[in-house]
Amino acid sequence: MTYNLSRAQPVIMLARVAAIVAFVAVVTVANAHDFWIIPSMFSAGPNATLELNGRQGGGKFPEGTAVPADRVTDARVIGASSTSTISEMAVVGTSLRLTHKPTSDGQYLIVVGLASRVNRQTPAGIIRFLKAEGGEAEALRLERENPFAGLDSVIFTSASYAATVAQVGNGGARAFGKTAGLALEFVAQNDPSRVRVGDTLHIKLLGHGAPLANLGLELASGLDVDAGSTENVERLTYFTDSKGIAHLPLTKAGPVMLRSAWASHRVGGAPNEWDVSRTTYVFNVGAGR
After folding, report:
1. Could you tell me the CA-to-CA distances from 70 to 97, 117, 167, 202 in Å, in that order?
2. Which of 12, 130, 151, 196 could form a disulfide bond with 286, CB atoms 3.0-4.6 angstroms apart?
3. Which residues lie below 8 Å from residue 174, measured CB to CB, with a gap of 6+?
4. Alpha helices in the chain, H assignment, sequence order
5. Can you give the pTM of this predicted structure?
6. Which tens digits make up the pLDDT trace of 207-232?
Protein backbone atom coordinates (compact mmCIF):
# COMPACT_ATOMS: atom_id res chain seq x y z
CA MET A 1 0.00 0.00 0.00
CA THR A 2 1.26 3.46 -0.91
CA TYR A 3 0.38 6.86 0.53
CA ASN A 4 0.17 10.23 -1.16
CA LEU A 5 2.26 12.27 1.33
CA SER A 6 1.85 15.48 -0.68
CA ARG A 7 -1.85 15.47 0.23
CA ALA A 8 -1.61 13.96 3.71
CA GLN A 9 0.97 16.41 5.11
CA PRO A 10 -1.12 19.61 4.66
CA VAL A 11 -3.99 17.90 6.49
CA ILE A 12 -1.66 16.99 9.37
CA MET A 13 -0.24 20.53 9.49
CA LEU A 14 -3.73 22.08 9.52
CA ALA A 15 -4.71 19.81 12.39
CA ARG A 16 -1.62 20.88 14.33
CA VAL A 17 -2.34 24.56 13.71
CA ALA A 18 -5.93 24.11 14.85
CA ALA A 19 -4.74 22.36 18.00
CA ILE A 20 -2.29 25.16 18.77
CA VAL A 21 -4.95 27.84 18.27
CA ALA A 22 -7.35 25.95 20.55
CA PHE A 23 -4.63 25.54 23.18
CA VAL A 24 -3.80 29.26 23.13
CA ALA A 25 -7.48 30.17 23.51
CA VAL A 26 -7.85 27.83 26.50
CA VAL A 27 -4.70 29.19 28.16
CA THR A 28 -5.84 32.78 27.65
CA VAL A 29 -9.16 32.09 29.34
CA ALA A 30 -7.65 29.99 32.13
CA ASN A 31 -5.20 32.73 33.07
CA ALA A 32 -7.80 35.51 33.26
CA HIS A 33 -8.46 35.28 37.01
CA ASP A 34 -10.53 37.84 38.85
CA PHE A 35 -8.89 39.65 41.75
CA TRP A 36 -9.59 41.42 45.02
CA ILE A 37 -8.10 44.05 47.33
CA ILE A 38 -8.28 44.14 51.11
CA PRO A 39 -6.94 46.73 53.57
CA SER A 40 -4.23 45.63 55.98
CA MET A 41 -6.54 47.34 58.50
CA PHE A 42 -10.17 48.20 57.77
CA SER A 43 -9.90 50.94 60.40
CA ALA A 44 -6.58 52.74 60.96
CA GLY A 45 -5.59 55.46 63.41
CA PRO A 46 -5.64 59.21 62.76
CA ASN A 47 -3.33 60.50 60.04
CA ALA A 48 -2.52 56.91 59.02
CA THR A 49 -1.26 55.59 55.69
CA LEU A 50 -3.59 53.16 53.94
CA GLU A 51 -2.07 49.80 53.01
CA LEU A 52 -3.96 47.49 50.70
CA ASN A 53 -3.17 44.04 49.37
CA GLY A 54 -4.17 42.91 45.89
CA ARG A 55 -4.28 39.27 44.83
CA GLN A 56 -5.62 37.36 41.85
CA GLY A 57 -7.51 34.10 41.90
CA GLY A 58 -10.46 35.48 43.87
CA GLY A 59 -12.19 32.10 43.84
CA LYS A 60 -9.66 31.01 46.47
CA PHE A 61 -9.98 34.13 48.61
CA PRO A 62 -8.14 34.86 50.89
CA GLU A 63 -5.49 32.73 49.17
CA GLY A 64 -4.06 33.77 45.81
CA THR A 65 -1.06 35.27 44.06
CA ALA A 66 0.15 38.83 43.65
CA VAL A 67 -1.28 40.95 40.88
CA PRO A 68 1.66 42.31 38.83
CA ALA A 69 1.95 46.08 39.19
CA ASP A 70 2.17 46.57 35.43
CA ARG A 71 -1.36 45.20 35.02
CA VAL A 72 -2.89 47.98 37.10
CA THR A 73 -4.38 50.74 34.94
CA ASP A 74 -6.60 52.41 37.53
CA ALA A 75 -5.99 52.78 41.28
CA ARG A 76 -7.91 55.46 43.17
CA VAL A 77 -8.75 56.51 46.71
CA ILE A 78 -12.15 58.20 46.68
CA GLY A 79 -13.21 60.32 49.63
CA ALA A 80 -16.46 62.14 50.25
CA SER A 81 -15.17 65.23 48.44
CA SER A 82 -11.85 64.25 46.84
CA THR A 83 -10.22 61.64 44.62
CA SER A 84 -6.53 60.71 44.60
CA THR A 85 -4.48 58.32 42.49
CA ILE A 86 -2.48 55.55 44.14
CA SER A 87 1.03 55.66 42.71
CA GLU A 88 2.96 53.58 45.25
CA MET A 89 2.67 49.85 44.63
CA ALA A 90 5.03 46.89 44.69
CA VAL A 91 4.81 43.11 45.00
CA VAL A 92 5.41 41.98 48.58
CA GLY A 93 5.24 38.22 49.02
CA THR A 94 1.98 36.93 47.57
CA SER A 95 0.32 40.36 47.38
CA LEU A 96 0.56 43.57 45.42
CA ARG A 97 0.99 46.15 48.19
CA LEU A 98 -0.62 49.52 47.46
CA THR A 99 0.00 52.43 49.85
CA HIS A 100 -1.52 55.89 50.03
CA LYS A 101 -1.67 58.59 52.70
CA PRO A 102 -4.95 60.56 52.64
CA THR A 103 -4.78 64.26 53.42
CA SER A 104 -7.55 64.01 56.04
CA ASP A 105 -9.27 61.49 58.26
CA GLY A 106 -12.53 59.85 57.18
CA GLN A 107 -13.87 56.94 55.21
CA TYR A 108 -12.48 56.07 51.77
CA LEU A 109 -13.58 53.94 48.86
CA ILE A 110 -10.62 52.31 47.12
CA VAL A 111 -10.96 50.99 43.56
CA VAL A 112 -8.46 49.21 41.33
CA GLY A 113 -8.83 48.20 37.69
CA LEU A 114 -6.61 45.89 35.65
CA ALA A 115 -5.70 46.08 31.99
CA SER A 116 -8.40 44.48 29.86
CA ARG A 117 -7.75 41.54 27.59
CA VAL A 118 -9.35 40.76 24.23
CA ASN A 119 -10.14 37.13 23.48
CA ARG A 120 -11.93 35.19 20.78
CA GLN A 121 -13.98 32.25 21.99
CA THR A 122 -16.95 30.15 21.03
CA PRO A 123 -20.16 30.97 22.92
CA ALA A 124 -19.64 27.78 24.91
CA GLY A 125 -16.10 28.92 25.71
CA ILE A 126 -17.36 32.19 27.22
CA ILE A 127 -19.81 30.27 29.39
CA ARG A 128 -17.01 27.96 30.59
CA PHE A 129 -14.89 31.02 31.33
CA LEU A 130 -17.61 32.57 33.48
CA LYS A 131 -18.25 29.35 35.38
CA ALA A 132 -14.56 29.03 36.17
CA GLU A 133 -14.18 32.67 37.26
CA GLY A 134 -16.98 33.26 39.72
CA GLY A 135 -19.69 34.06 37.20
CA GLU A 136 -21.81 30.92 37.58
CA ALA A 137 -25.09 32.86 37.78
CA GLU A 138 -24.25 34.93 34.70
CA ALA A 139 -23.21 31.78 32.82
CA LEU A 140 -26.57 30.20 33.62
CA ARG A 141 -28.36 33.34 32.39
CA LEU A 142 -26.50 33.16 29.09
CA GLU A 143 -27.36 29.49 28.73
CA ARG A 144 -31.01 30.28 29.43
CA GLU A 145 -31.35 33.36 27.19
CA ASN A 146 -28.91 32.27 24.44
CA PRO A 147 -27.90 35.79 23.29
CA PHE A 148 -25.12 34.31 21.11
CA ALA A 149 -27.53 32.43 18.84
CA GLY A 150 -26.18 32.27 15.29
CA LEU A 151 -22.62 33.18 16.27
CA ASP A 152 -19.75 30.73 15.72
CA SER A 153 -17.33 32.82 17.79
CA VAL A 154 -17.40 35.91 19.96
CA ILE A 155 -14.72 38.56 20.41
CA PHE A 156 -14.96 39.62 24.03
CA THR A 157 -13.04 42.11 26.12
CA SER A 158 -12.47 40.83 29.65
CA ALA A 159 -12.06 43.47 32.37
CA SER A 160 -11.56 43.03 36.13
CA TYR A 161 -12.17 45.50 38.95
CA ALA A 162 -11.93 45.45 42.73
CA ALA A 163 -13.10 47.73 45.51
CA THR A 164 -13.05 48.01 49.29
CA VAL A 165 -13.67 50.61 52.01
CA ALA A 166 -11.32 51.74 54.79
CA GLN A 167 -11.50 54.18 57.67
CA VAL A 168 -8.74 56.59 58.70
CA GLY A 169 -9.11 58.12 62.16
CA ASN A 170 -12.44 58.43 63.94
CA GLY A 171 -15.57 59.69 62.25
CA GLY A 172 -15.24 62.04 59.33
CA ALA A 173 -17.16 62.14 56.07
CA ARG A 174 -18.46 58.84 54.64
CA ALA A 175 -17.65 57.67 51.12
CA PHE A 176 -19.32 54.25 50.88
CA GLY A 177 -22.05 55.54 48.55
CA LYS A 178 -19.68 57.05 45.99
CA THR A 179 -19.47 55.66 42.46
CA ALA A 180 -16.22 55.14 40.58
CA GLY A 181 -17.53 54.92 37.01
CA LEU A 182 -16.42 51.32 36.49
CA ALA A 183 -18.02 49.14 33.83
CA LEU A 184 -19.37 46.95 36.65
CA GLU A 185 -19.36 48.08 40.28
CA PHE A 186 -20.93 47.51 43.67
CA VAL A 187 -22.32 50.58 45.43
CA ALA A 188 -23.26 50.08 49.08
CA GLN A 189 -26.58 51.61 50.16
CA ASN A 190 -25.81 51.44 53.89
CA ASP A 191 -22.40 51.83 55.57
CA PRO A 192 -20.47 48.52 55.25
CA SER A 193 -17.97 49.65 57.89
CA ARG A 194 -20.71 49.63 60.53
CA VAL A 195 -22.44 46.31 59.84
CA ARG A 196 -22.44 43.50 62.37
CA VAL A 197 -23.65 39.91 62.47
CA GLY A 198 -27.42 39.97 62.19
CA ASP A 199 -27.48 43.09 60.00
CA THR A 200 -28.30 43.25 56.29
CA LEU A 201 -26.10 44.96 53.71
CA HIS A 202 -28.03 46.53 50.84
CA ILE A 203 -25.81 46.91 47.82
CA LYS A 204 -26.51 48.01 44.26
CA LEU A 205 -24.86 46.66 41.11
CA LEU A 206 -24.26 49.16 38.31
CA GLY A 207 -23.34 48.34 34.73
CA HIS A 208 -21.97 51.41 32.94
CA GLY A 209 -23.71 53.50 35.58
CA ALA A 210 -27.16 51.90 35.26
CA PRO A 211 -28.76 49.52 37.80
CA LEU A 212 -28.64 45.87 36.76
CA ALA A 213 -31.76 43.91 37.66
CA ASN A 214 -31.71 40.15 38.29
CA LEU A 215 -27.92 39.94 38.17
CA GLY A 216 -26.31 37.21 40.26
CA LEU A 217 -23.56 37.74 42.81
CA GLU A 218 -21.62 35.52 45.18
CA LEU A 219 -21.01 36.25 48.87
CA ALA A 220 -18.08 34.49 50.57
CA SER A 221 -17.94 34.80 54.36
CA GLY A 222 -16.33 33.09 57.34
CA LEU A 223 -12.84 33.90 56.09
CA ASP A 224 -9.76 33.72 58.30
CA VAL A 225 -7.40 36.10 56.52
CA ASP A 226 -4.65 35.97 59.17
CA ALA A 227 -4.48 32.18 59.11
CA GLY A 228 -5.07 31.98 55.37
CA SER A 229 -7.76 29.36 56.05
CA THR A 230 -10.71 28.72 53.75
CA GLU A 231 -11.94 25.69 55.70
CA ASN A 232 -15.08 27.36 57.05
CA VAL A 233 -15.83 29.62 54.12
CA GLU A 234 -19.50 29.84 53.19
CA ARG A 235 -20.43 30.83 49.64
CA LEU A 236 -23.96 31.93 48.85
CA THR A 237 -25.57 33.25 45.66
CA TYR A 238 -27.97 36.19 45.63
CA PHE A 239 -29.70 38.20 42.89
CA THR A 240 -30.43 41.88 42.55
CA ASP A 241 -34.04 43.06 42.58
CA SER A 242 -35.81 45.17 39.96
CA LYS A 243 -33.86 48.24 41.18
CA GLY A 244 -30.49 46.51 40.93
CA ILE A 245 -30.15 46.09 44.71
CA ALA A 246 -29.21 42.89 46.52
CA HIS A 247 -30.17 42.44 50.18
CA LEU A 248 -27.51 40.41 51.96
CA PRO A 249 -28.07 39.00 55.47
CA LEU A 250 -24.76 38.86 57.36
CA THR A 251 -24.37 35.76 59.52
CA LYS A 252 -20.62 35.52 60.15
CA ALA A 253 -18.06 37.98 61.52
CA GLY A 254 -14.89 38.81 59.61
CA PRO A 255 -13.99 39.82 56.06
CA VAL A 256 -16.57 39.22 53.35
CA MET A 257 -15.97 39.21 49.63
CA LEU A 258 -18.67 39.89 47.06
CA ARG A 259 -18.10 39.15 43.41
CA SER A 260 -20.16 39.32 40.27
CA ALA A 261 -19.82 39.05 36.49
CA TRP A 262 -21.78 40.63 33.66
CA ALA A 263 -21.70 39.89 29.93
CA SER A 264 -22.98 42.69 27.73
CA HIS A 265 -23.01 43.45 24.03
CA ARG A 266 -20.42 46.11 23.26
CA VAL A 267 -22.10 49.46 22.68
CA GLY A 268 -21.86 50.24 18.98
CA GLY A 269 -20.02 46.97 18.32
CA ALA A 270 -20.64 44.24 15.80
CA PRO A 271 -23.04 41.43 16.80
CA ASN A 272 -20.09 39.26 17.91
CA GLU A 273 -18.36 41.95 20.00
CA TRP A 274 -19.06 41.64 23.71
CA ASP A 275 -17.71 42.82 27.06
CA VAL A 276 -17.29 40.53 30.06
CA SER A 277 -16.83 42.55 33.25
CA ARG A 278 -16.03 41.07 36.66
CA THR A 279 -15.85 42.91 39.95
CA THR A 280 -15.24 42.22 43.64
CA TYR A 281 -15.99 44.15 46.83
CA VAL A 282 -14.47 43.43 50.25
CA PHE A 283 -15.75 44.68 53.62
CA ASN A 284 -15.65 43.57 57.25
CA VAL A 285 -18.53 42.34 59.42
CA GLY A 286 -18.26 43.04 63.13
CA ALA A 287 -19.26 40.62 65.86
CA GLY A 288 -22.89 40.58 66.90
CA ARG A 289 -24.23 43.16 69.31
Report:
1. 13, 14, 27, 34
2. 196
3. 80, 106, 107, 191
4. 5-30, 123-132, 136-145
5. 0.86
6. 999 999 999 999 988 765 554 555 56
